[in-house]
Structures are given as C-alpha cells and as structure tokens.
C-alpha cells in the first residue's frame, strides 16, 4: 500500500493485509443535514449534529480525565521504546536495551524505572501518519487531522490559524461546556512558539477563543510559581466579584456593546471564563504546588518537566478532564545533533523519573483507574544515523512513517506491545495506528458519542471520532 503526502513522495507500508486504511475524517451527509448546514453556516460550528438533530454528546465513559504528555520535537523510537539490538550500528545507535518487568518486552537502557513499571503500560509501536514537518505534524497529533487548508512551502505558511481544527480539549469544551469553574483543558508549562512560528493544533481553531484551553506559561519548579489570574485583589471578595459580574453583563447588553459585534463577544467570552475561574477555588488550590511535601516534589524531579507532571496530577485531581503536559519547548526532542548525549544526560532520565512518580501516585490513590495517560511525540526519527551539514556530532532526522507511544490507565491493559515494525523500525509490519485513532480512543474513553460532529467554516460536518478505537489497548488481541 502506498500513501502519498506533501512531505513524502510515497510511504510504503509492507503489510498490506492489515494496512487497509489510515483513518481520515469521515463525512456522512443526508439531504436534511445539507439543508441544515446551508442555513446554519459557521454559526453552528460548535454544535454536535447527527441526522439533522442535536445528539447527546455522552456515552458510558472509561475515563474522567486524560493526561497527554507531549514530547515535542519527536523522540527516536529506536532509542526509546522500539530498540533493534540486532540492527547494524549505523541503525542501532549507541544505546543497549534492557528487559522489563514483563518477559519479552525490552526498552532502552536509560528508562529503568519505566522498565520496572511496564505492567502499567501498553506500548504502541506502529503509530504512523504522513507529515514530517514539525508544525503540520503537531496539528495532526493534537487534532487527529491534517491541517484543513493547503500550507505553503515555508514554515511561515504553516503557523497557527483560526481555520485550524480544534484540539482535543477545545472540542470537548464545545460539546460539553462547563459552568463549574473547572476548565475543560489546561496546557502547561509553555506554548509552542519559536520566533515568528506558532505551532498549530494547540487551541480551538475555528471554534473560536471561547473554547481555547487554558494555557500556563510558567515553570512549576520556580520558587515564585503562582497563577496571579486566580487570585483576587485585596479587598475583593467573591460576593463583590459576582456583583461586578452582574454589572458587566448589563453593560454588555447595551446598544454600543451589541454594535461592536464579534470582537466584543469574543472578549466577553474570555471575561466570563476568567470570572468563573475566580469564583471557584478548586483549580486555584490545584496550582498551589508548594503545598506538596518536599519528598514528593523530589520524587518527580526538581526540574520543569517533573514538576509539570506533578502539577498535571493535581489538576486531574481537581477534575480537569484534559491536561497536556509538554516536556520542553518545540525543539526539545528534535535531536538532529547529539541525539544520544541529549537523551542520555537529560531527556530520558527526566522522563523516566517523572513518569515513575506520576504512575506510582495515580496507582496508589486509585486515580489510574479513571485517568488515561498518553505519552508520545508528533513523530519519530529516522532509522539511519546522519549528520547535519557543518555538524560533527550525529543524530537522527524526522520520521513519521512509524513511531512509538505509551498508553496506560482507564481500563487499558498494561504489560503489552501493540504493533510491530520491521528490522530497523522504519515501517510497521502490522496494522498502523494513526493520530485519528488516538483521537478517537481518547474521546471514546471520555464517553463522547461516536455520532458527535462539529461543523467547520466551510459548512462541512466532521465526526469528532474520526478514526478507530485502538481496541487492543483494552482487549490485548492483535488486530
């Protein structure tokens, strides 16, 4: 089977019987829906529509929360979760593999805690998609879809846009709006921006700013860490703030405010969210990471990533349904240069320590039974080692043909590997699983109905669950 995309002339997936599809958005319309969409246009963009009727957005849920640990830049599958010890040195790299607590499963030697906790985790080794560019691949990873408009040849043409599809948390907020002061999604500890480039897929796209996830751009490991926007000014009590909110609502209904149109509406939506957060202390207390005992903070690692995972656990305990924790800025795992040095000295030890503490706490408190944890990058890295022009220390380039991810919690069976790759971890030799499948699995776990759709700016309905549930995560049966 050959799959074509703008950054790969062709992708050859050799196991043709099972590579019968790479999940893409589904479009199913009848005449009534077409008439309804023609009347509703973009105004109905946040409405779940099936068969011309609003539908319930909820079914039986496996998970109350999802934590997505995003390894931005793309970690090497060969040097983490899919080692190939029998491959030639120019493929194998510098690391050895170690056995895990589950017989028959081996991973990188620099992930010893993960190896001991393998009973919690499922490794999916056959993740795959078509985008080898960081920006476009991040949109795919965080929305389950390629960018909706053609992008030019320059990264400046691929930046974040209000025409993008909404990310997981934004879509959930649109179909399940909350009024309890708890945001549907929180992303931390940094927004993915590099110079003039802002990575797409991080916010609500065409759904509008009302549904943007709450973004934290601070280091939880900083002694001065606090979220000022969650603190009332001296002398301002919650009743006084509610009184101000009622006055603001009256002002927003004035003729002048209505004449201002969409811009004022957008601002008012952000005000409404801010006021709701200020009058609820559950989220505010979750951000008081200083309340944690010093020994707990040490277990996670006194670094930005470890403390981000600790903060993520606290937000999940507060009831936030989708939390995205990034390990570093946009190029953190982009190891074109010094792949093995960066992995060995910083990236893998911090990942190993932070994940181990997180899983220990979630398991002990029972939270793991209702929390899905996903760890992945936007793609993997090339099997063949190479050097960038002018560089003397080798690394690996971008590779979306296959890569690995970790999944645990909320009914997922631990201690298993799903999917196989060839002898050099270049292509799947079993069914590939796409970001659309990850998206569908995530929403399915949260109890989102498979019939829910959102309407894009062109009036097209897009099934939110636009792939297949990765059923072997639950059944253990190879598909």
Structure description:
With 479 residues, this protein is α/β, with parallel strands linked by helices. The protein folds into 2 domains: 60-224 and 287-447, Alkaline Phosphatase, subunit A (3-Layer(aba) Sandwich); 228-284. The protein is built from 14 helices and 20 strands. The strands form 7 sheets. Strands 12-9-13-5-14-17-8-18 form an 8-stranded mixed β-sheet, sandwiched between helices. The protein has a two-stranded antiparallel ribbon with strand order 1-2. The chain has a two-stranded antiparallel sheet with strand order 3-4. The chain is globular. The two termini are 18 Å apart.
Strand order of the largest sheet: 12-9-13-5-14-17-8-18
The biggest sheet amounts to: 8 strands, mixed
**N- to C-terminal separation?**
18 Å
- CATH names the topology of the largest domain as Alkaline Phosphatase, subunit A
How helical, in percent, are the residues? 25-40%
**Domain tally:** 2
Q: Average pLDDT, to the nearest integer?
A: 84
CATH class of the largest domain: Alpha Beta
Report the structural category.
alpha/beta
User: Superfamily at the CATH H level of the largest domain?
Assistant: Alkaline Phosphatase, subunit A
Strand content: 15-25%
Poorly predicted runs of 5 or more residues: 1-56
- CATH architecture verdict of the largest domain: 3-Layer(aba) Sandwich
